[in-house]
């Protein structure tokens, strides 16, 4: 019996004779074409006498109906079967009734044909594109409905088949008939009731394990439940039982292979199925087309884009063939609809989508059809309809279980029908919500997707874009920061997925898998605007590390990497449109620089000018400038100006406000880069061009003023800054620059007038500056610095009242400076400059002496207060050092350690500042080092430390050879050396050090002589001090000579003591060495004696073993001879001899007694047990036991002693066994 896909022939011949009474009519099946042709043979067959030709009658009828069905006469077949089955109830006289068994089979055949018709019927009837009934008279639908009505649905055909099966069960024996059970199971499977169908098929297979249709049903159910290996084994079993069975099990084998990842095996199975059954249903053809389409999406295809295009073309050809063969195939309609939608054929895609929806057989296919309809409406601008269809798609997938047809085959989306359809629908709905600016609902939908699929790249990007938009539109800083952090986290996850797909450290197999999995990721990342959003998010954190941004330190800027990637994506997309490839060898997007091979905007005939937007190039240039990559930044800005020029040319030379803004901003940035590179003239020219078009552009005037300051032209700088301030008097950045100019001039000259002018301007800036801004903080720091400088330079006079007033004024200015710094810190807690200024004020004891710590604390002296203030300042500066990497911080830390007399730490801080920041060229820091070493030497009484102090003093003098203060400092340090050595005891100095100190003192005397003869009117030291130092040098030198003589005497005495001690140590070492050698010789002698003793013992043991073995061999040979003699005398034959026989042979009791010792000889072989350990195999006789043929131990010794008179004997059984053992 067939399942509706065709019948197996019951009669091989195409002709047969229909008996009619005494005659017969020949029926030729090849002559039957029209419905009328079939009606006559059918009527003849039905009139055959059922009493004589019942079996032939049934076979003839089924054969003719099979031929009619195959030739499309379906209405005839259904009507005839219905008449035959219903004949007993309808009282048809012209039809001989069939027996109940045959009517059951014909009823099942009718139900099977109805199931076959249901497969071509629509599932639902759409109002937009209704499926009308068939207009062919050969289709049963033509006679069942009136003209103009809709077609029957699958459910209606199932209902009719159900009715026929129910009638068949009502016939006698129908409920247990195998054919009824088969059709009932098939109907349940068709309806998607898998559990009930599985039980029905199991019941059939219990009765008939090789039932092919039941095995097919079981295999299909196992596949639907994703038990692919069990399903594959079942399909293979069917193929083995019937290689040409229909429906073809090769289709199922291919589906299982595809689901388990064996794509090539699946394709081979389907191709084999087509070759075996070329006229079979279109399922293998459709599966091959879907496999080819999935291959076209594989980025790891060996043939590249050409092979992928060929695969897509082949897939579309196959799916068109499949659709032509069966235009009711929902999947084929889906694939064609998607193709037409991508090609712009909206109308054709809409028709195919509605047809796919009408003929869908599973909820997954229904979901895909709704999704396609939503996309079509979305593209057509019908947002309400699109939103409805997307919702229907989600609802269908959410309600779909592991129904019939569900699986992991090659569906239209490449991941199986329904694979991820719900997620796609939810993404579409989220996109529609974004389109109508319903961000909360869209956010909720996308978060739901990410809870189910945390690595969904589309949801991550879309949700990140929403949070990015909100971060730039929120009025609250807190809300904006929160949204920005959320967007960063989401884009970080997306970037990690993108980086995983580009990981080339994996092997080829792992890399291909990643590329295949990351296909959607790579497509999503080809949106250049996405990278612009990522770049905007991280503009305020330029040194954050990017996920997967590269291995080098220059790729650690997320914002820069994002903007570069945006430019690269635009170039790649444009090159792909033109069918070109960008050159390799460096960053691909860098070919847009206009350098080298691509200079002038050409890359192998590819004009890159204007492809990358000017704002993107401008942002890249700014970020590279901050990384001090001036060459790269310059090329970006120049390229951006070329892009603007092209935009102006495309606009027919009209410069709009937008274009003018681009030109101005890019030119200004380029001029700044010129400055950084030292091309001052180019920078001035660029600023000049900006001021020609926009004289009010104060930033350009400010930059020109900075150039004038660096060129030592303060008048020009003053004029430009005043012009700019006249134009914009309250521009904060400009006022900060003018404050810097005034402060620098005042600090260089220390003029009270200039200091007052700078201070007044700073105070005026604070009056107009916005609170809690960067300008406000800068002005506060400048005010603190200027106030501190004014206080420090306000020296007290000798007058009584006037001096007190000046002292009070100084103290007020110090307090004012501290107030400025304190307010700056409150405004910006991260301002390290204000913190350092406040620390300096504390260390200098300008805001308190530390005497009033707490009300109940004891009063501190000046020294203790200074120590405490230095410690407090040191705490602040240590924290400042973590944020401000400048030499001044380390110098101030050194000062604090110096005040606390922590010379080593002070030296360490000064050396760090000098070496790391000033490269040994700052005279002040060198003098700080010399001073610290000088004080350390005085404390430790160390001549070596004085030498270090002299080294740094000399370094300072080398930088300024004519500086009198440096000369005096060096001379003082050199003089201090011999003074220190003279005061040291002999055991802490040496003659060499004294001589070195004398040399230094003589050099110091030379320097003092030079200073005494210097005619400079104003000196940094009192002149009479130089004369005193000269005289003191003479006294030190005289005392040094005495110290040398005493030291030589001391060292000679000490040298004799040292020599005697050395000789005593050497003698002791020689004595210990001799004792050690004697001890080693004794050990060697004893070892030799022990080895000799062991050798002799081994020889004796070997001789003893050889002797014992020889004796044992001799004993074995003697025993063998005795056995042979006993055999010759007839002993051991298994028979007992009588006394008479023994007497006749001359044997008597005495002979028995003589034999007894011989029978016990084997007991002497007990030593052989030890021999077995030496490799000789012991025999069973020596153990007192033998082994019988079953492996059991036979106790020989007891049986030998049994018998009268204690005679010893052996039975033939044991003798034979012994012989066998010996033979072995």
Using brief descriptors, characterize the structure shown:
two-stranded antiparallel ribbon; 2% strand; disordered N terminus; 50 helices; 6 strands; 1224 residues; mainly alpha
What features would you describe in this structure?
With 1224 residues, the chain is mainly alpha-helical. It contains 50 helices and six strands. The strands form three sheets. The chain has a two-stranded antiparallel sheet. The longest helix is centred in the C-terminal third of the chain and has 106 residues, at 1023-1128. The N terminus and C terminus are likely disordered.
Q: Rounded to an integer, what's the Rg over CA atoms?
A: 55 Å
Helical residues, percent: 55-70%
* Count of alpha and pi helical runs: 50
Largest sheet, described in full? 2 strands, antiparallel
Number of strands: 6
The SS-based structural class is mainly alpha
Beginning-to-end CA distance, first to last residue? 72 Å
Fraction of residues in β-strands:
under 5%
Q: Assign an overall shape.
A: flat
Strand order of the largest sheet: 1-2
Pick out the low-confidence regions. 1-11, 401-408, 413-419, 542-556, 585-589, 591-605, 796-801, 1132-1136, 1139-1224
Q: How much is the average pLDDT? A: 78
Offer a concise description of the structure:
With 1224 residues, the protein is mainly alpha-helical.
Helix and strand topology:
Blueprint: E1 15-20, E2 23-28, H1 35-46, H2 54-70, H3 74-90, H4 100-119, H5 140-144, H6 154-170, H7 178-191, H8 194-207, H9 212-224, H10 228-241, H11 249-259, H12 263-276, H13 283-296, H14 304-325, H15 330-342, H16 346-359, H17 363-380, H18 383-399, H19 421-435, H20 439-452, H21 457-473, H22 477-501, H23 508-517, H24 519-524, H25 528-537, H26 558-578, E3 602-603, E4 606-607, H27 614-626, H28 630-650, H29 657-677, H30 680-693, H31 698-710, H32 714-727, H33 732-749, H34 752-768, H35 774-793, H36 800-827, H37 832-843, H38 862-883, H39 887-899, H40 903-917, H41 923-940, H42 943-959, H43 964-983, H44 991-1013, H45 1023-1128, H46 1139-1144, H47 1149-1159, H48 1168-1173, E5 1185-1187, E6 1193-1195, H49 1196-1200, H50 1212-1223
Antiparallel strand pairs: 1-2, 3-4, 5-6
Helix pairs in contact: 1-2, 2-3, 3-4, 4-6, 4-7, 6-7, 7-8, 7-9, 8-9, 9-10, 9-11, 10-11, 11-12, 12-13, 13-14, 14-15, 15-16, 15-17, 16-17, 17-18, 17-19, 18-19, 19-20, 20-21, 21-22, 25-26, 26-27, 27-28, 27-29, 28-29, 29-30, 30-31, 31-32, 32-33, 33-34, 33-35, 34-35, 35-36, 35-37, 36-37, ...
């Amino acid at each position: 019996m067939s399942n509706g896909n065709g019948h197996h022939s019951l009669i091989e011949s195409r002709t047969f004779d229909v008996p009619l009474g005494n005659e017969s009519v020949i029926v030729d099946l090849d002559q039957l074409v029209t419905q009328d042709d079939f009606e006559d043979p059918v009527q003849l067959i039905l009139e055959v006498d059922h009493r004589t030709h019942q079996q032939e009658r049934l076979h003839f009828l089924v054969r003719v109906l099979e031929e009619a069905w195959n030739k499309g006469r379906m209405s005839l077949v259904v009507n005839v079967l219905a008449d035959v089955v219903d004949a007993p109830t309808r009282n048809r006289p012209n039809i001989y009734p069939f027996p109940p068994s045959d009517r059951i089979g014909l009823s099942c055949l009718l139900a099977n044909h109805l199931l076959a018709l249901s497969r071509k019927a629509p599932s639902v009837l759409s109002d937009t594109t209704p499926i009308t009934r068939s207009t062919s008279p050969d289709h049963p639908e033509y006679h069942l409905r009136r003209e103009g009505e809709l077609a029957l649905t699958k459910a209606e055909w199932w209902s009719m088949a159900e009715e026929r099966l129910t009638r068949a069960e009502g016939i006698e024996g129908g409920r247990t008939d195998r054919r009824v059970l088969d059709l009932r199971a098939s109907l349940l499977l068709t309806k998607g009731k898998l559990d009930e169908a599985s039980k029905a098929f199991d019941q059939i297979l219990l009765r008939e394990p090789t039932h092919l249709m039941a095995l097919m049903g079981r295999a299909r159910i196992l596949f639907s439940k994703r038990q692919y290996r069990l399903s594959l084994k079942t399909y293979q079993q069917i193929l083995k039982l019937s290689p040409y069975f229909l429906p073809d099990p090769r289709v199922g084998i291919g589906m299982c292979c595809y689901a388990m990842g064996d794509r090539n095996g699946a394709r081979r199975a389907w191709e084999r199925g087509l070759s075996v059954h070329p006229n079979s249903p279109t399922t293998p053809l459709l599966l091959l087309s879907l496999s080819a389409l999935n291959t076209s999406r594989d980025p790891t295809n060996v043939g590249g884009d050409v092979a992928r295009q060929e695969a897509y073309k082949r897939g579309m050809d196959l799916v068109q063939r499949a659709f032509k063969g069966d235009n009711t195939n929902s999947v084929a309609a889906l694939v064609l609809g998607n193709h037409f939608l991508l090609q712009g054929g909206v109308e054709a895609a809409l028709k195919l989508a509605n047809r796919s929806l009408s003929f869908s057989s599973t909820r997954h296919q229904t979901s895909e059809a709704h999704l396609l309809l939503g996309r079509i409406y979305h593209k057509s601008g019908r947002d309400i309809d699109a939103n409805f269809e997307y919702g229907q798609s989600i609802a269908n997938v959410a309600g779909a279980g592991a129904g019939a047809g569900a699986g992991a085959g090659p569906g239209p989306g490449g991941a199986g029908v329904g694979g991820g359809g719900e997620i796609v629908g939810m993404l579409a709905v989220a996109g529609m919500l974004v389109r109508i600016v319903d961000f909360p609902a869209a956010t909720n939908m996308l978060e739901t997707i990410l809870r189910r699929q945390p690595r969904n790249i589309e949801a991550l990007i879309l949700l990140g874009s929403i949070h990015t938009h909100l971060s730039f539109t929120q009025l609250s800083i807190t809300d904006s920061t929160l949204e920005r952090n959320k967007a960063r986290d989401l884009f970080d996850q997306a970037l990690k997925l993108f980086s995983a797909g580009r990981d080339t450290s994996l092997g080829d197999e792992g890399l291909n898998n990643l590329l295949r999995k990351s296909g959607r990721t790579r497509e999503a990342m080809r949106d250049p605007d996405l990278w612009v959003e990522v770049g905007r998010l991280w503009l305020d954190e330029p040194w954050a590390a990017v996920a997967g941004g590269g291995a080098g330190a220059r790729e650690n800027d997320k914002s820069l990497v994002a903007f570069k990637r945006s430019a690269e994506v635009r170039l790649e997309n444009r090159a792909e449109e033109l069918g070109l490839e960008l050159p390799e060898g460096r960053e691909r997007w860098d070919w847009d620089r206009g350098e080298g091979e691509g200079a002038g905007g050409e890359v192998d005939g590819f004009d890159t000018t204007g492809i990358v937007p000017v704002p993107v190039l401008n942002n890249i240039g700014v970020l590279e400038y901050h990384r001090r990559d001036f060459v790269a930044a310059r090329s970006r800005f120049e390229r951006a100006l070329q892009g603007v020029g092209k935009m102006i040319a495309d606009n027919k030379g009209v410069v709009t406000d937008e274009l003018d803004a681009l030109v101005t901003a890019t030119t200004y940035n380029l001029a700044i880069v010129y400055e950084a590179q030292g091309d001052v003239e180019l920078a001035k020219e660029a600023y000049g061009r900006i001021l020609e078009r926009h004289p009010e552009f104060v930033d350009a005037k400010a930059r020109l003023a900075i150039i004038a300051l660096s060129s030592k032209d303060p008048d020009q700088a003053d004029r430009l800054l005043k012009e700019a301030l006249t134009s914009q008097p309250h521009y904060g950045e400009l006022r900060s620059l003018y404050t810097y100019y005034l402060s620098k001039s005042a600090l260089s000259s220390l003029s009270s007038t200039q200091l007052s002018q700078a201070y007044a301007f700073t105070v005026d800036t604070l009056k107009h500056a916005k609170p809690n801004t960067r300008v406000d903080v800068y002005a506060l720091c400048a005010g603190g610095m200027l106030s501190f400088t004014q206080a420090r330079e306000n020296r007290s006079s000798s007058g009584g009242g006037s001096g007190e007033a000046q002292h009070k004024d100084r103290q007020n200015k110090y307090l004012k400076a501290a107030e400025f710094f304190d307010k700056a810190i409150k405004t910006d807690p991260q301002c390290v400059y204000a913190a350092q200024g406040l620390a300096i004020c504390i260390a200098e004891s300008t805001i308190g002496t530390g005497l009033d710590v707490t009300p109940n604390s004891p009063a501190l002296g000046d020294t203790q207060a200074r120590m405490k203030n230095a410690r407090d300042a040191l705490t602040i500066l240590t924290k400042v050092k973590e944020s401000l990497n400048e030499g001044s911080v380390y110098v101030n830390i050194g000062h604090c350690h110096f005040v606390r007399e922590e010379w080593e730490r002070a030296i360490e801080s000064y050396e760090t500042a000098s070496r790391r920041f000033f490269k040994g060229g700052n005279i002040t820091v060198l003098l700080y080092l010399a001073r610290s070493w000088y004080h350390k030497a005085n404390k430790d009484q160390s001549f070596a430390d004085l030498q270090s102090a002299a080294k740094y003093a000399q370094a300072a003098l080398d930088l300024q050879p004519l500086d009198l203060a440096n000369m005096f400092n060096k001379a003082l340090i050199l003089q201090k050396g011999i003074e220190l050595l003279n005061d040291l005891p002999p055991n802490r100095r040496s003659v060499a050090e004294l001589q070195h100190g004398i040399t230094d003192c003589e050099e110091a005397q030379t320097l003092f002589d030079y200073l005494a003869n210097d005619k400079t009117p104003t000196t940094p030291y009192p002149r009479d001090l130089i004369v005193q130092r000269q005289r003191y040098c003479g006294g030190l030198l005289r005392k040094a000579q005495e110290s040398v003589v005493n030291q030589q005497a001391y060292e000679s005495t000490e040298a004799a003591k040292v020599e005697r001690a050395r000789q005593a140590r050497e003698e002791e070492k020689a004595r210990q060495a001799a004792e050690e050698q004697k001890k080693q010789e004794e050990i060697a002698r004893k070892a030799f004696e022990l080895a000799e003793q062991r050798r002799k013992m081994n020889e004796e043991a070997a001789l003893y073993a050889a002797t014992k073995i020889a004796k044992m061999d001799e004993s074995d040979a003697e025993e063998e001879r005795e056995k042979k003699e006993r055999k010759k005398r007839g002993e051991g034959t298994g028979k007992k001899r009588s006394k008479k026989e023994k007497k006749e042979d001359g044997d008597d009791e005495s002979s028995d007694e003589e034999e007894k010792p011989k029978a016990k000889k084997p007991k002497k072989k007990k030593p052989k047990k030890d021999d077995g350990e030496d490799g000789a195999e012991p025999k069973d006789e020596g153990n007192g036991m033998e082994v019988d043929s079953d492996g059991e131990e036979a106790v020989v010794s007891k049986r030998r002693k049994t018998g009268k008179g204690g005679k010893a004997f052996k039975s033939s059984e044991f003798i034979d066994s012994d012989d066998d053992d010996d033979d072995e």
